[in-house]
Amino acid sequence: MGLSGPIPRRVDAATKLALLDMIDAAIADGCEHRAACAILVLKESRAWRWQRRRDHGRLDDRRPGGHPLHGILEAEVDAIVAIFDEWAEIDHSHRKLAHRGSYVGRVWVSPSTVKRVLAAKGLHLRGPKRSGTSAKRPWPDWVSYQPNEMWIYDTTHFTRCGAAVVVIVDMVSRKWLATVVSAEETSTQVQAVFGDALDAEGITAKIDARYDELVDLGVDDERRPILLAISDIHSGSGADRCSRRGDGRRFDRDRCSLVVAARPTGAVRRPLAC
Questions:
Q1: Is 204 a domain residue?
Q2: 205 & 250 share domain
Q3: Mean pLDDT of 218-226
Q4: How far apart are CA 170 and CA 258, in angstroms?
Q5: Is residue 3 part of a domain?
Q6: Euclidean distance between CA atoms 256 and 217, whole angstroms
Q7: What is the span of the domain harbouring residue 25?
Q8: CB atoms inside a 10 Å sphere around CB 263
Q9: Closest CA to 55 of 20, 87, 31, 12
Q10: What number of other Cβ atoms are within 10 A of residue 240's Cβ?
Q11: pLDDT value at position 203?
């Protein structure tokens, strides 16, 4: 039997039958029932109970738990499975499925019960699909990735002193072009910092030299000013976030990345529209 020491709390029917046969053989040889149980390290009341069960052919242990009154019914199990088939791709959790059953008036169980029933049926929830990463938009063909071709600006807030710092940096060389510190963050500060950057790079004089010239928008003119604006603000419309100056330039009030671009030929381009 492979037993040593006290008899375990649960043994199979074959072990019980073998122990009872040993006790019967010991009693037949003149040994008392109590002494035989003591030698086998078996409680006497347990041996008597096994003998009664042997007479009725019920040595096998019953399934633990019995039949609790709060146990779920087969109809409830079927309802849980039906809820899973209908709503698993939408709810994605046992908690939501349990609430879904009560919402539709078909089954009232806890999330742990839903999880246990589905596990017994071999049914498993799958998480929602992850949203794919957005593809980066390529730069326009007329943009060349070299110094003094693309400028980018951003605003840093210092809340303790109530100030906002607008900075323009060359996107390629990382050169710090201009800075404006102000208590406000409006289009005025953006215009001022871009004006300072144009002055520092000597571009303003070239712009003023042909300020009064007319540019035909229907012709791909090298002198036509271009402004590429890339914003990280997604709320509101672009018209609400921009203001227009008298000379036709328009600047974004919100924090965004403004890129001033020129062609590789070296022609100067003035910001016009975002």
A1: yes
A2: yes
A3: 60
A4: 11
A5: no
A6: 26
A7: 13-55
A8: 16
A9: 20
A10: 9
A11: 78
